[in-house]
Structure to design on (704 residues):
């Protein structure tokens, strides 16, 4: 099998810097309408950015006053006071989920605040982040004046409601960089410790530290705050899962032993035909591991449960299979996906012994003559795996409402707090007792027969009950366009969500990427990406944004949106004066899919080189190179799974295991029996178990 690969002389892994320092030498000041500082070409993107009009006006009022104060003069103190009042009004008059544009069109405030990568005209941010960005850009003397204005009120409110979580949250948000805000965040961190929500604790401590670090010594100074923060951070470290146990076996494996190969469904139920489909563009089965090691595989027609002994090859080959109509009481369902509009990856998400999955596709409403046909959404389902290996329904959320066994059904509006008809997008994600899902508003006729479309939304739900915790609008649908075609726009599905260090990253695949703090939906940033047209090549867009291998560098994500011509490395929490774009975006060209990145400055791609598909490297010094080639006619059959030391990727020949530390040296090939629709697919791993979900088959290996 090794002969199917050709290794070029001197092949090396790519090197695209992902550290805190961007690769450009100096900040670029030109706007997007002029020079192209990131090398993307014309942005071709007018996707809607939400904003709170009242907060936007208050911020601009404060900015104008600060601009006058910065110019000096006899009125400087008054101007500075008016600036503070404008920024404070933006906070008080807005809610946690409200956003503002970073550079409103027509504003005369250009250049007032640092924009190192010249991306402010294409971005929005939460109101609280906007005010913090301004305050952290001030001198310590000016910040001290801000703190002196707010500190007495913050302390008074703390005394009145010392342990009310909602009030503490408002103090922390509305009175930033004060001692009162830091104390409020500390108390909320203590509540998180009592509830065992460690990621919430990390977020509150991070916020408390940001407030405390800005405080001067004196009457409004730190006064032991740092000691209390140190104590809680040490406690959190002792409670967090141990990180010193070394990598999982699959992350350092040198060989693969096949333990199971089983048919999931007939090939005819998985796809309308067997013709080749671009990577990531089909309906792709997927799986997730429960905490006991059981594997649940989701297919278009149902679920298959594999217990740990079956996966290990020591307990027979018994598989528990469940059809949706039997398990959930639903009519037969079957997702569909067109290569031109992105795939539909079936990606269940688990926490503990609970699993959440998206079932079926939504169908937009339309007019049949003068008769309006309503839209039909799909289902978000939560199941629990019981001790005997039985799956039971926790709750089901659909357009009709929230269904919970033994309890009254809540209507959609009562359960979700928003009207409209929605299609849950693939790839929900769970964490800290919550589940997060993106939902696309479906076109539906109103009472007068006019077709309307709801916003694209992000929902945070309680994992146990399905109840709504918070929701945020992301944008309006802005689908791919066909140039010169009467067919108009081509609807696309969203990118699966990513949860990285308490931050949700939502790739909408309609021209926008957004980041929110999972704790309370605080908006960090949204950014327009470069767009493509239907006839242009695009990324699969059907995998979650990637987390770079890290050794202390700022948290970041790597992503390649389906509707974009470029891949991006974005900072999760950019600081004032630091760029959101850690590197210039990478044009797709002959690349096929983004595979990995690490803190040493490395990106890894699946791509094409001439007639062959290959693992490809990108080095700012040497350019794009191939580290190996697949055989003639051989293609990648699913996204890669990587660790800092290994690469796992499938083709029609088998499951390849490469050593990343030795220029992707081929270690072994796991052979996959053809059970009906060829080999290869999506890879997932836990401990020693490596599973591949193909079009109609599951292959399992033990990593050694």
């Amino acid at each position: 099998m090794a002969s199917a690969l050709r290794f070029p002389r001197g092949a090396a892994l790519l090197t695209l810097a992902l550290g805190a320092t961007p690769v450009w030498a100096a900040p670029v000041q030109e706007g997007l309408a002029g020079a192209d500082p990131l090398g993307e070409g014309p942005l071709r993107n007018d996707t809607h950015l939400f904003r709170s009009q009242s907060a936007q006006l208050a911020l601009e009022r404060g900015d104008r006053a600060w601009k006058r104060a910065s110019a000096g003069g006899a009125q400087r103190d008054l101007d500075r006071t008016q600036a503070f009042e404008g920024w404070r009004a933006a906070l008080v008059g807005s809610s946690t989920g409200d956003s503002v544009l970073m550079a409103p069109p027509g504003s005369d405030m250009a250049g007032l605040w640092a924009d190192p990568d010249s991306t402010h005209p294409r971005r929005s941010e939460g109101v609280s982040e906007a005010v913090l960005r301004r305050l952290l850009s001030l001198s310590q003397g000016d910040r001290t004046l801000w703190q002196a204005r707010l500190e007495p009120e913050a302390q008074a409110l703390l005394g009145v409601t010392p342990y009310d979580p909602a009030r503490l949250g408002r103090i922390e948000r509305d009175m930033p960089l004060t001692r009162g805000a830091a104390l409020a965040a500390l108390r909320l961190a203590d509540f998180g410790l009592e509830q065992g929500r460690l990621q919430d604790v990390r977020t509150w401590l991070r916020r408390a530290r940001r407030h405390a670090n800005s405080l001067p010594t004196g009457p409004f100074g730190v006064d032991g705050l740092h000691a209390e923060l140190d104590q809680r951070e040490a406690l959190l470290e002792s409670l967090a899962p141990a990180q010193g146990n070394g990598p999982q076996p699959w992350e350092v494996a040198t060989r693969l032993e096949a333990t199971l190969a089983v048919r999931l469904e007939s090939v005819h139920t998985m796809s309308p035909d067997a013709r080749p489909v671009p990577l990531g563009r089909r309906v792709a089965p997927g799986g997730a591991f429960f905490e006991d090691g059981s594997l649940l595989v989701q297919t278009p027609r149902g679920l298959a449960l594999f217990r740990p002994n079956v996966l290990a090859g020591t307990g027979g080959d018994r598989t528990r299979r469940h059809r949706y109509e039997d398990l959930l009481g639903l009519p037969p369902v079957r997702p569909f996906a067109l290569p031109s509009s992105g795939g539909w990856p079936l990606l269940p998400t688990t926490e503990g012994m609970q699993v959440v999955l998206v079932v079926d596709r939504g169908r937009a409403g339309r007019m049949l003559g003068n008769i309006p046909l309503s839209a039909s959404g799909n289902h978000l389902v939560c199941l629990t795996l019981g001790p005997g290996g039985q799956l039971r329904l926790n709750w089901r959320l659909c357009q009709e409402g929230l269904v919970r066994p033994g309890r009254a059904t809540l209507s959609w509006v009562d359960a979700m707090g928003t009207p409209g008809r929605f299609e849950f997008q693939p790839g929900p994600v769970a964490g800290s007792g919550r589940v997060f899902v993106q939902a696309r508003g479906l076109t539906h006729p109103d009472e007068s027969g006019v077709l309307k479309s709801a916003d694209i939304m992000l929902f945070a739900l309680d994992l146990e009950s399905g109840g709504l915790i918070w929701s945020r609008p992301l944008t309006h649908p802005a689908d791919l366009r066909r140039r010169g075609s009467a067919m108009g726009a081509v609807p696309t599905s969203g990118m699966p969500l990513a949860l990285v260090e308490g931050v949700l990253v939502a790739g909408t695949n309609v021209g926008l990427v957004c980041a929110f703090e999972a704790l309370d939906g605080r908006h960090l940033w949204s950014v327009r990406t470069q767009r493509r047209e239907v006839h242009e090549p695009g990324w699969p867009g059907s995998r979650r944004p990637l987390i770079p291998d890290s050794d202390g560098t700022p948290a970041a994500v790597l992503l390649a949106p389906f509707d974009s011509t470029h891949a991006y490395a974005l900072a999760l929490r950019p600081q004032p004066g630091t760029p959101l774009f850690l590197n210039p975006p990478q044009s797709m060209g002959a690349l096929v899919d983004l595979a990995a990145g690490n803190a040493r400055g490395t990106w890894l791609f699946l791509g094409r080189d001439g007639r062959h598909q290959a693992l490809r490297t990108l080095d700012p010094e040497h350019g794009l190179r191939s580290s190996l080639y697949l055989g003639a006619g051989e293609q990648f059959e699913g996204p890669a799974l990587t660790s800092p030391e290994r690469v796992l990727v499938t083709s029609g020949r088998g499951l390849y295991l490469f050593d990343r530390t030795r220029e992707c040296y081929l270690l072994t090939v796991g052979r996959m029996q053809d059970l009906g629709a060829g080999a290869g697919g999506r890879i997932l791993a836990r401990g020693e178990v490596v599973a591949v979900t193909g079009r109609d088959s599951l292959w399992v290996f033990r990593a050694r």
Remarks:
- The CA atoms of residues 19 and 688 lie 31 Å apart.
